Amino acid sequence: MSWFTDEEGQSIHLSILELLHDIKSHWDSIYYMINQLRTFKQALNVFFQAPINKDITDRWLHEMDWQIIEHMEIVLEIPHSAQQLMLHETLPVLSCAVPTIKTVIVQWEHLSTCLP
Fold first, then answer.
1. I want to staple 65 with a disulfide (CB 3.0 to 4.6 A). Which of 24, 56, 61, 115 is the partner?
2. Are 34 and 41 in contact (CB under 8 A)?
3. What is the pLDDT of residues 69-82, one digit of tens each?
């Protein structure tokens, strides 16, 4: 028996990961933390279901909490992708930055109709 399964019910192995820290100079560290938190979802659910942790079950993230976290990740993924695009430039210039920022705005506007 495996504690963790994928969407099809197949056993999966979770890698050992370190917790990430918020780094004020790296705005997308929050994106990475949310992304990693979602990776830990099954492990967190197992942790909170353990009888030894019954005194902290009030901190358990419910399905609505997970949906909000997923939406936050989707919103932050847009500027994260733009930043990654700019980082791949050998010499970022304003002529590339303006269209990238415009793309972020357009994508957020589109997202506002999908995830109001």
1. 61
2. no
3. 999 999 999 999 88
Please state, in angstroms and rounded to a whole number, the distance separating the CA atoms of residues 18 and 27.
Answer: 19
Give the span between the Cα atoms of 36 and 22, in whole angstroms: 12
* CA 71, chain centre distance (Å): 9
Q: Which of 38, 39, 35, 33 is nearest to 21 (CA)?
A: 33
Type of residue numbered 24: K
Residue with tokens 């993924």: 77
Total residues belonging to the chain: 116
φ/ψ (deg, to 5) at 61: -85, 125
Token pair listed for 17: 């990961």
pLDDT digits (tens, 9 = 90+) for 8-55: 878 877 777 777 777 776 777 889 989 989 988 888 888 888 888 889
CA distance 29 to 37: 12
